[in-house]
Each structure stands twice: as C-alpha cells, then as structure tokens.
C-alpha cells in the first residue's frame, strides 16, 4: 500500500540543498555591511557606563554589552582577578583601560569595535584560542567557573548571555559532572529542573530524557556540537555519547523548531564535546566501583606547532561492569580524536571523530506493577530480577561519526559557520522480556522474544551566516541559516514467544523460541530547513525574533511481504511546516531580568499505526514567562519560569506492539525554579524545584481496528510524568589547615508520585534519594598531579520504582552505586 499524500514540488528544497555549501560564502557582500560600517565611528564617542565592581570577567562582560563592542579574552586571563567597576563618562578605550588597570592585561583593537585582551608583556597580538572564538562572536566575554556558566549557544545558535536569553536554559559544567560522578549523559542532568532523567529506571543503554513532562520513549532530543544526533528513534539505533568526552551539557526547555527543525516540545539537550587546547594538557584516570565496575580513561591535548596554530586532543576510555540485574553486563570502548587549525585570526577549522564499540548494553526491561509496586501472592519481585534468558539476551552497538566545524570572519559584520557530521552505526539485539502473568493467580510471566539487526547511515549539515550591525540605536545580531538532514536505516526484526518464567524464583534454560513472521524495512528521512533569526539590543531591552520553513519526507519500504503488502511497497509522508519564535526581555540595573516568550515545535512521525499508515506530525506551542536574577558583580544566577505547552498527536506504543498510536492532545503547564551559586571561593550550591501539571486535553484516538476507538482519558495525566521534583547539591572545598585539599559533596533528589496507567487508577509512589562525594588532592601529600574522588549515588540504597509506562511495565530504580576514581594530570 502506498500513501496517497500529494507530492510536494521538490524544486525549492532541492535548490536549497544544492546551494547549501555555498550559502555562507555567497552572502558575504550583502549591502548591509555598508550600513553597519558607518556605525563604528560612533563607538569612539564618550558614553556613560555603570559597571558594578566584582570579578573581572563579569565586569568586562557588562562593559561589552553597554558599549556594543566585540570583546575577546580567555577565561584563564581573568580567573581570580577583581575589578573596581566603572561609573562615569568614558570613551571605549578609556573604559577598558580603567577596568584592566593593575590586572596585567591590556585591550588592543585595529578598528575600534573589535578588541582582544592580552598580557601586557606580549609584544604582538596572539592568535585567539578556541575558547575566545566561542564567545567573541556573541559580542561578550563568556566563561565557566565551577558550576556557573555565563553564556550558552543552545537557544540562539550564537553566544548569548544566560541572563539575556528569553527562554529557560540550564548548563551543566564539566566540574559538576566530575563532582557528581555522572556515568551517563542522562545522569548529568539529575539536578536540573524540569528534567526526569530515569523514566526507564536503572538502564544505561540509552540517554532517555523526559522534559516538562513529555516522554515519547525516544532520545530524539539529544544534540551534539550543535547538530542533531541523527539516530533513528523508531528503531534500536540510537547514538549515545559517554560523558567523559564532554565539556558541558546545555538544556533548553520548551519548543525549539525555529532553529533546529523537527524536535520535541519539551526541549532539547545540547552536548558540547571536548575541544583541543592550545596549552599542553594530559590526564589519565582509573575507576573501580560496585557491581564489578572498572575502567580507564585518558585525555591528551596541546599545540602541534610552535606558533600554536594547530592543536590536537585525543580522549579515550574503556569501561566494563556488571549491572544490578542478574546475568547482564555493560562494556564500552571509545576514542575521540580532534584537530583544530587556525589558518589565521579570522578562519578556523575543527575536525572531529568519535568511535565507540559497546559489545554489551546491559539490561533494558520492565516488570508488572503487581509484584513491583505492591506484593503479589505475598511476594515482591527482586530489584535484581532478570526475566530473560542468559543464553539469548544480547545487545551490541558500533557507532562511528566524523565531522567538522568551520568558521570564517569576513569582516567586522559578517561571520560564516558550517557544521557537518556523518554517522554510521550497527546494532544487533536479542532480548527476551516478560509481559503480564499467565493467569490471575499465577506467579509465572508470559515471555516474548525480540530480535533486531539494524544498519544506519546519516548525515547532517548546517550553514550559518551571522551579521552584527546597528540600525540607529539598536544593535542587531542576525542569523541566516540553511540545514539539511538525511538518514537511512535498514532494519530486520524477528519476534516470537518462549516458555513462561516464575517472577520470584526464576529457572533459566527454557530457551526454545516459537518464531512469528519476520519484518524488514528500509526507512528514510530527509529534512531541509531555512531559518532567520534577529537578536536586537535596544538600551536595556532584548528582543528575539525567529522564523523557519521546513520540508520533511519520511518513507518506509518493506523488504519482505507482510500484512498483504507486496515486497517493495513504500509508505511515505511529506510535510512542510512554518514555525516561529518571539521573545522580549528587560535588563534592570539591579540584576533582575523579566521576560516573556512564545515558541513552536513540530516533529513529523516516522511511526505507523496498526494499519501501516504514518501518524500525523506532532505540533507544540509554548508560552513562557520568567524572571532571572544575577546580582551585579556576580556570576550567580537565579531563574524562575512559568510555562504552558499544548501538543497534539503525540505518538506512543506499548512494548509488545509493533505499531504506534496518536494520544490526542496533551497540555503541560507548570513552574520551574533554579539557582546556581558560588557562595564563597570554597562553597558551591545548586538548587531546583519543578511543578508540572500534565493532562490529556483531548481524548486518545486509537486505530486498533477499521473503526477508530475513542479512549476517554481527557483530564487524566499521562504515565511517567511526576507532578513535583526538587533537588539540592552542595560542594565544599577545604583550602587551609589539616583538611587542606579535601572536598565534600552531598545532594538530595526528590521525585513526586506519578501514574502507572492512563486511567490514573494506580500511583507510583514518590521517592527521595541521597548522593555524596569525597575528594582529595593528593598533591597536598607530595603526589603532584594525583587526585582521588569517591562518588556514591543513592547512599541509603532506597528501593524504589522510577516510573511505570503501564501496569505491565514498571521500571526498577537504580540501587546504591559507589565508584572511586584516581586521576593523574601531568
């Protein structure tokens, strides 16, 4: 059967794709440059500045915003230095000289609008490092210090101050990942509001992240270095990055299609990988822990040439561990070589590769509520229980990605960037899982078999042209972009049934499988998008406007006869979608910044219903209002937001089914609070609170037969959506006395109740978990470069159920895990 959806004229998207590689270069001569060129002269005139005293980095940040200049420096140059502030009327040069007085730094410029900070001892302007470029194009100084970050690119694809971003953005720094001992990307966000990081319990196979209540069972909201991860969420082929390879994790809450195209309405997670450093850096580390965990990692970086124009970084690790579930292991081998080349001060290229082999993927399954949430026949199922077959169950994944990030500054107005990545993966799966009891009183679980052999190939490219210019008193940062995605997945699936197994006293060895008819598909996706964004600074006002047009085509071609469909029959779907975003924010002198924004999302479904027809795309719309507060002279940030998201046509499926359903309309509304504090030089604090009211606003329509079946669930809450969450983490470092070199960390995470069924008849109880860490700088004992860290998650070994997708699939939470890491830097 073929789709009767009308074909789109392909001339426009085809032309866009053909022009993709040349778009950035071809727009470098727009007449806008002439208009902007007349403005810099005005910057030489004296203006009044009010810059609060405090850390030098933040003082320069404030000055750059007020002066409307491009200011570039490395965080290392300003670290630990203070500024007396600046109050009065000065020229730009006078203001910079006053701020930098006594710091050993000076600012140089060739045009009066772009400044580079350098040591006063330097006789010539040094080439900017990758750290400088990352924030210089955003017109301000950016840095990460402890748990605090000043800027992010996730919401605007330009380096924008978090305080000036009219949407909720959270940042997890490298320091936070290390202090909390994060073992997966999902775990890095355990202390982030609005994010549920364990909707499927103690599995580590995929980085499931449910945001603002939305959990569609996929990991389609993960981005890597600005580009979608490009796995296939409708299959088992999903890319996963180990957190050891990351520099930071940025979390954007709410719809974001205006810059990224197809995406979840709950938000997205942007991973930033480690980049080459222009100073020598070498680290090796070894980890041992509970459940037989052991592994080693290394991270080497530095310049290749004497002029420091070329730098490399090679990061790698091995990991091997049992799991809390019987007869399951996790193994990983990964390496990421990276090379950065500064051709000149205006042109740079970073080449990246990531190769990962996971010969064992651990456990991934759920158990009935009857026996997990409450006793069945007087017994509870063990948190170590494995319902599969040791001789059958197996999961392996191989993934290789290669890409680059290119950047060229034409002049003071125009900058072009192009990001590209190709992904190739291979996944093989054999899994036996339980689904319900054999009778109303039996202790035996029905068992089924799933097998998969999948091969995925995909690539994505994003072209951006950025222009910075003035129109009167308004400063603009305009971004024009064109991106293209293409993905092909070949999937061969088998299924069957096995003999049942006792849920409380399992006996393995009944491994004979009664096979059902196999299925085989060739799945394709293409997306072309054109987007335009304008960020406007007018006095203390910040405006964000964006619009995007997408063309998306999906298809499923069956490779063997099935469901009365001949071999080669293709079901296809083509969609176009216009999305937009708008936001306004006001910066008060006292550090308060109220904002309001509107944003949209869409996500064409690659899923099919019971009849094999593609489901309609999901559409999301969000209104958000919030208040951010950054005390003058501080990098501490407090945020509060209220939001409402309306989404239609969300796709869902039961684990034992091979088709999806549309679940009508869902409304999510709530409140999020977050604080990142560097209280003293020794004490860091994180705090968050989330209230999410997620309801079906339209009843589910299920196409289980030729006639639609209406399931009346309007007003009910979807499963796996806790109503409340809260967390707090504190880290203290001793810097004097007998305890000098000791670090102590402690955290608490609370997850409120959720529902185990769509009818809201059974609750999953709330739970509270405690985490802790102890670290010591062994250099204080004469062992220079050595550091020891011990992390414990779920210290009290709380037994809990993370969530339930249905009454037949509840997911056991992760038990206590302790790991010790010894690292050596040289």
From TrEMBL:
<keyword id="KW-0998">Cell outer membrane</keyword>
<dbReference type="InterPro" id="IPR012910">
    <property type="entry name" value="Plug_dom"/>
</dbReference>
<dbReference type="Pfam" id="PF00593">
    <property type="entry name" value="TonB_dep_Rec_b-barrel"/>
</dbReference>
<dbReference type="InterPro" id="IPR010105">
    <property type="entry name" value="TonB_sidphr_rcpt"/>
</dbReference>
<keyword id="KW-0813">Transport</keyword>
<keyword id="KW-1134">Transmembrane beta strand</keyword>
<dbReference type="InterPro" id="IPR011662">
    <property type="entry name" value="Secretin/TonB_short_N"/>
</dbReference>
<feature type="domain" description="Secretin/TonB short N-terminal">
    <location>
        <begin position="69"/>
        <end position="120"/>
    </location>
</feature>
<comment type="function">
    <text>Transports the metallophore pseudopaline, which is involved in the acquisition of nickel and zinc, and thus enables bacterial growth inside the host, where metal access is limited. Is probably involved in the import of pseudopaline-metal complexes.</text>
</comment>
<dbReference type="GO" id="GO:0009279">
    <property type="term" value="C:cell outer membrane"/>
</dbReference>
<keyword id="KW-0408">Iron</keyword>
<dbReference type="GO" id="GO:0038023">
    <property type="term" value="F:signaling receptor activity"/>
</dbReference>
<dbReference type="InterPro" id="IPR039426">
    <property type="entry name" value="TonB-dep_rcpt-like"/>
</dbReference>
<keyword id="KW-0410">Iron transport</keyword>
<keyword id="KW-0864">Zinc transport</keyword>
<keyword id="KW-0732">Signal</keyword>
<keyword id="KW-0812">Transmembrane</keyword>
<dbReference type="GO" id="GO:0006829">
    <property type="term" value="P:zinc ion transport"/>
</dbReference>
<keyword id="KW-0921">Nickel transport</keyword>
<keyword id="KW-0406">Ion transport</keyword>
<dbReference type="GO" id="GO:0015675">
    <property type="term" value="P:nickel cation transport"/>
</dbReference>
<dbReference type="Pfam" id="PF07715">
    <property type="entry name" value="Plug"/>
</dbReference>
<comment type="similarity">
    <text>Belongs to the TonB-dependent receptor family.</text>
</comment>
<keyword id="KW-0798">TonB box</keyword>
<keyword id="KW-0533">Nickel</keyword>
<dbReference type="InterPro" id="IPR000531">
    <property type="entry name" value="Beta-barrel_TonB"/>
</dbReference>
<protein>
    <recommendedName>
        <fullName>Metal-pseudopaline receptor CntO</fullName>
    </recommendedName>
</protein>
<keyword id="KW-0472">Membrane</keyword>
<dbReference type="InterPro" id="IPR037066">
    <property type="entry name" value="Plug_dom_sf"/>
</dbReference>
<dbReference type="GO" id="GO:0015344">
    <property type="term" value="F:siderophore uptake transmembrane transporter activity"/>
</dbReference>
<dbReference type="InterPro" id="IPR036942">
    <property type="entry name" value="Beta-barrel_TonB_sf"/>
</dbReference>
<feature type="signal peptide">
    <location>
        <begin position="1"/>
        <end position="36"/>
    </location>
</feature>
<dbReference type="GO" id="GO:0015891">
    <property type="term" value="P:siderophore transport"/>
</dbReference>
<keyword id="KW-0862">Zinc</keyword>
<keyword id="KW-0675">Receptor</keyword>
<dbReference type="Pfam" id="PF07660">
    <property type="entry name" value="STN"/>
</dbReference>
């Amino acid at each position: 059967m073929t789709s009767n959806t009308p074909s789109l004229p392909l001339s426009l998207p085809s032309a866009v794709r053909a022009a993709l590689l040349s778009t950035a270069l071809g727009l470098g001569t727009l007449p806008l440059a002439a208009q902007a060129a007349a403005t810099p002269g005005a910057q030489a005139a004296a203006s009044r500045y009010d810059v609060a005293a405090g850390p030098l980095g933040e003082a320069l940040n404030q000055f750059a915003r007020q002066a409307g200049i491009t200011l570039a420096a490395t965080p290392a140059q300003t670290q630990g230095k203070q500024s007396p502030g600046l109050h009065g009327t000065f020229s730009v040069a006078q203001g910079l000289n006053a701020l930098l007085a006594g710091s050993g730094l000076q600012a140089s410029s060739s045009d009066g609008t772009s400044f580079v900070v350098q040591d006063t001892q330097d006789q010539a302007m040094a080439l900017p490092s990758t750290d400088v470029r990352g924030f210089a194009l955003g017109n301000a100084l950016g840095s990460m210090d402890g748990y605090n970050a000043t800027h992010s690119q996730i919401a605007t694809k330009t380096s924008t101050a978090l305080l000036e971003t009219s949407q909720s953005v959270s940042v997890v720094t490298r320091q936070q990942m290390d202090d909390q001992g994060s073992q997966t990307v999902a775990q890095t966000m355990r202390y982030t509001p609005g994010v549920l990081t364990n909707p499927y319990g103690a599995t580590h196979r995929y980085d499931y992240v449910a945001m603002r209540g939305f959990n569609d069972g996929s990991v389609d909201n993960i981005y890597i270095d600005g580009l979608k991860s490009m796995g296939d969420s409708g299959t088992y082929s999903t890319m996963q990055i180990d957190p050891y390879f990351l520099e930071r994790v940025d979390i954007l809450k709410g719809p974001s299609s205006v810059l990224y195209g197809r995406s979840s309405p709950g938000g997205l997670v942007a991973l930033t990988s480690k980049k080459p450093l222009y100073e020598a850096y070498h680290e090796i580390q070894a980890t041992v822990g509970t459940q037989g965990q052991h592994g080693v990692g290394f991270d080497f970086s530095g310049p290749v040439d004497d002029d420091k124009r070329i730098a490399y970084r090679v990061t790698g690790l091995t990991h091997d561990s049992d799991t809390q579930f019987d007869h399951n292991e996790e193994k990983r081998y990964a390496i990421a070589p990276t090379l950065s080349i500064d051709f000149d001060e205006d042109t740079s290229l970073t080449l990246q590769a990531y190769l990962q082999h996971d010969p064992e993927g651990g456990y991934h399954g759920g158990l009935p509520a009857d026996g997990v949430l409450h006793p069945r026949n007087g017994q509870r199922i063990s948190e170590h229980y494995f319902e599969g077959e040791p001789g059958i169950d197996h999961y392996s994944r191989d993934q290789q990605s290669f890409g680059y990030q290119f950047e060229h500054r034409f002049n003071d107005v125009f900058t072009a960037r192009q990001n590209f990545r190709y992904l190739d993966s291979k996944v093989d799966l054999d899994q036996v899982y339980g689904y319900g009891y054999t009778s109303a009183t039996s202790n035996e679980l029905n068992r089924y078999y799933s097998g998969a052999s999948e091969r995925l190939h995909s690539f994505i490219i994003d072209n951006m042209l950025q222009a910075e210019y003035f129109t009167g008193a308004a400063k603009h940062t305009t971004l024009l972009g064109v991106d293209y995605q293409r993905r092909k997945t070949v999937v061969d699936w088998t299924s069957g049934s096995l003999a049942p197994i006792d849920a409380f006293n399992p006996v393995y060895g009944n491994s004979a499988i009664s096979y059902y008819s196999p299925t085989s598909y060739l799945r394709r996706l293409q997306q072309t998008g054109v987007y335009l964004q304008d960020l406007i600074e007018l006095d203390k006002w910040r405006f964000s406007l964006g619009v995007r047009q997408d063309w998306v085509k999906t298809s499923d071609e069956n490779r063997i006869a099935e469901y009365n469909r001949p071999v080669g029959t293709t079901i296809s779907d083509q969609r176009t979608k216009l999305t937009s975003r708008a936001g306004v924010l006001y910066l008060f002198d006292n550090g308060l910044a109220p904002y309001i924004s509107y944003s949209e999302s869409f996500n064409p479904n690659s899923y099919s219903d019971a009849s094999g027809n593609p489901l309609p795309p999901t559409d999301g719309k969000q209104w958000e209002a919030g208040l951010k507060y950054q005390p003058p002279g501080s990098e501490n940030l407090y945020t509060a937001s209220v939001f409402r998201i309306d989404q239609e046509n969300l796709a869902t499926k039961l684990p034992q089914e091979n088709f999806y359903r549309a679940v009508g309309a869902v409304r999510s509304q709530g409140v999020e609070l977050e604080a990142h504090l560097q209280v003293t030089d020794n004490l860091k604090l994180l705090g968050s609170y989330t209230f999410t009211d997620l309801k079906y606003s339209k009843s589910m329509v299920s196409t289980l037969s030729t006639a639609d079946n209406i399931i009346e669930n309007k007003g009910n809450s979807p499963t796996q959506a806790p109503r409340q969450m809260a967390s707090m983490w504190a880290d203290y470092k001793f810097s004097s006395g007998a305890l000098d070199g000791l670090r102590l960390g402690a955290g608490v995470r609370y997850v409120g109740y959720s529902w185990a069924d769509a009818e809201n008849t059974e609750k999953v109880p709330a739970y509270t978990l405690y985490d802790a860490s102890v670290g010591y700088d062994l250099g204080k004992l004469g062992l220079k470069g050595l550091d020891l860290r011990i992390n414990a998650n779920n210290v009290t070994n709380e037994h809990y159920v993370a969530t339930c997708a249905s009454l037949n699939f509840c997911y056991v939470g992760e038990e206590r895990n302790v790991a010790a890491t010894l690292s050596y830097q040289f």
